């Protein structure tokens, strides 16, 4: 295929795509945001998703130059991109908004941890490899989460374990926990690449970490605000960042501001 290909990690501004036909692979947060950003200057934007039906090929409401497709079947030497439903476009650019692969080239190949189908294994609670804990730990592996509150709790836990304030279970207990965790995922039919995808289990994980760290978990208003924001994002993907409805959600802002004010007043 003769066109240009790049990953979303390289994307900065839409202007380089002026007048071009762009195929965006992936309809997660990066794919949906970038496709709408590019649509303002591109000739056409075609968003391909593996979650759509195989016969999908439709124009997105509210956009004169955006289409939603099933997965790409193949790309051809004449510049065509062919989708599973048989439709095709002559594209200038393919933008891969397909996530990231875990990679730890600085670790020797000693079988302490391995990456298989984007699953880092074995890890106790996504952080500690049982064989070498606590000498090695991983911060920030979970995805589909609100990142910084979770990663701050992980960091607090690791620091407490290293300083001796918190204790880990025995190696055998951690291994059994990891085995049971993977068994539960397998029973749900989840592929290994979703091992670190917390999503609906995010606050449950944060509550567990907070308990280990002997501190409070996420505030109630933070959980409610997350749910409200996700609902608004689905309902208004074009402008959910720019407009605030107020009304039912104003009390959450008031609670957050009270907590922040109390925090800022501490010596």
From TrEMBL:
Top EC group: oxidoreductase
Matches recorded under Gene3D superfamilies: FAD/NAD(P)-binding domain
Keywords of the record: FAD, Flavoprotein, Monooxygenase, NADP, Oxidoreductase
EC number(s) stated in the UniProt entry for this protein: 1.-.-.-
InterPro entries: FAD/NAD-bd_sf, Flavin_mOase, Flavin_mOase-like, FMO-like
GO molecular function, one term: flavin adenine dinucleotide binding
Cofactors demanded by this protein: FAD
Family of this protein: Belongs to the FMO family.
The protein's name: Flavin-containing monooxygenase
Species: Aegilops tauschii subsp. strangulata
Lineage per the UniProt record: Eukaryota, Viridiplantae, Streptophyta, Embryophyta, Tracheophyta
